[in-house]
From TrEMBL:
This is Sigma-54-dependent Fis family transcriptional regulator. One of its GO terms (biological process) is phosphorelay signal transduction system. PROSITE patterns: SIGMA54_INTERACT_1, SIGMA54_INTERACT_3, SIGMA54_INTERACT_4. Residues 373-606 form the Sigma-54 factor interaction domain. The keyword ATP-binding applies.
Amino acid sequence: MKREIGPNHMKINALPARTSLATGQMVLGNIDYDERATMRAWESFLADEPRCARDPVHPSHVRSLIHDSWYRSATGGINAQGIEAPLSSDRDEIEYLTRANAELLSAARRSFASLGQLLDGTGAMLVLADSDGVLIDAIGDKKTLHDGMDIHLAIGGKWNEDAVGTNGIGTALWTGEPTFVHAAEHFCAGIKSWTCAGAPIRDPLDGKIIGVVDLSGYSPIFRPHNTALVAATARQIEKALAEQQQEQRTRLLEAFISSAPSYRRKDGLVIVDHRGRAIFCNNVPDGETTEMMDGPMEPGRGRWLMNLPSSGSEADLARALPAHLRSCHITPLKLDGDLRGAALVFPSVPSVSSTAVVHQEVNKHLQDAVAMIVGESEALQAAIDVACRVARSGSVTSLLVEGETGVGKELFARLVHAGSRRAANDPFIAMNCGAITRDLFGSELFGHVAGAFTGASREGKPGVFELANGGVLSLDEIGELPLEIQPFLLRVLEERVVHRIGDSRGRPVDVRLVASTNRDLKQEIAAGRFRRDLYYRIGAVSIIVPPLRERGEDVLLLIEHFNRQIATAAGDDPLEFSREALDALLAYGWPGNVRELKNLVGRLHVLTRGRDVGLHNLPEEITASGSGSEAGSDSRVPAHESGGTLVEAERQAMKNALAAEGGNLSRVAKRLGISRPTLYRKLDQYGIRRGFI
């Protein structure tokens, strides 16, 4: 059927694709395609992949787009002898996909209905995939739809390049442009008898790719205008999406007007949709929403601001607000009984007395400092509550913060400073006792006069107590303080007077001390390395910052916080974490605590290709079975083995909900008031098999 390319090979630009049973050649648009030559190039690539990867010049009969995709497929670990795409046939997963892509499916309905009738008997099928390349709808020729099941070209099949290599859907997602992949150009051997043309679908609001429309069939259906057809269909779907979004925008504005009669024209207003994106902005004050600027339409429009909680209560909405938006009032907006957005109102500030202004400023600084400590676990909230009480109290002059390295102890010192400020320039001075040499401790803490010792500065130097006068002094790793210096520190704390080294004159200081340590100071006292009287002086009020492994789903909140923070600083979109990746991160012991998590998110932003983070992107110590920290991760004993009555009650409640909802996990999660990832994790934790009923 095929032979080598001869001198009379065909090459045309605008005519329909033509095939020759004698030569096996086909003209694809404005390039030559030869089945045998393309297969030889593919076989050569696989046989000598390193050389092919290093060689910037691809074979003349293989398009650069295809050659580059082959390289991505090979280096990504795709099996070139694969015969099908991964397929999820789980009914709950398909239901979840349908609900998650309801807007896309609705926008595509009209185009698919009109084209579906025309494709019957043509040997072609039209499919719709989401942003991950998972098929969510398929129409067309009945026989082709049936044959497509053999390679999992059906609803639930995953067709991005990471799953099945070079193909019309996955390569269109990668390039962001309409793309066709014909026959031998596919990377996997099992799909080389197919041809496909895909075009990405972009969200009209923010321009992100949210799906792909693709025309597929056996190779004889190829025509150069297949790509134009799917591109036109994608534009029709985008137009329908824009109409849907405009209708939702109008309805949300109407819902806000009817629910907020006290709104004033001078107030700033931002309306966000159900995905937390700004769809309307008006009179937003400078500095409040700087992250929303430079949007594609009106200032701020289309930018992601927050994740809306499923409950829709005002309290949950307020907690979901990022720190830079917590000065606003938030109102849930419901359409047809479902939470579909929220209104963020920034009240205009009336003139008030100077005393009231100072009080408001202190409260705002304290709120901002609290917002910097991300987490909702009970132990963390208890520590925050104690720190806030100390900050507001004028009688407590010292606080001891205990916790492992990396838990964020300095944030509590800054919280105390924020809540006790009396003037805008009240100082905050931090000193790490573990970073000071033994000989310099006295000079750094208390200062020295000119010529007090060899190496002393000629002008003298104030110590950190003097520098912190009127504000807060944070002494980190106070357990490293030399024993001979401790009596002098105790004297300063008792007398509120500091003496510079070499000076008999005392200097009064008004300083609030926040000491922090990762050591057990009581053990240090028993070992004779820390003075008991100093411990009781600095530890009159103490808090313990829990390690990250004991903070439950705070891990997810911190991932979201650092993800958004790093993405905003870099001008990128936040990463999207898979459920499996989040479960692995939740199960990890985090020996480096919050610092380790922040560094991991930063590394993922640098090293992850694309915006999706899966298990394969995580370090081995996190994904390894039974991962945990050397410092003591919880053993994660299944809750049903613990014998606790509350644990058993929760386990039984989950079984009852599963029975009541017939095993439908979406409805079970809604019934229990928890997210689907939490439900999956608890099912595994309690040893409940999803199909036990």
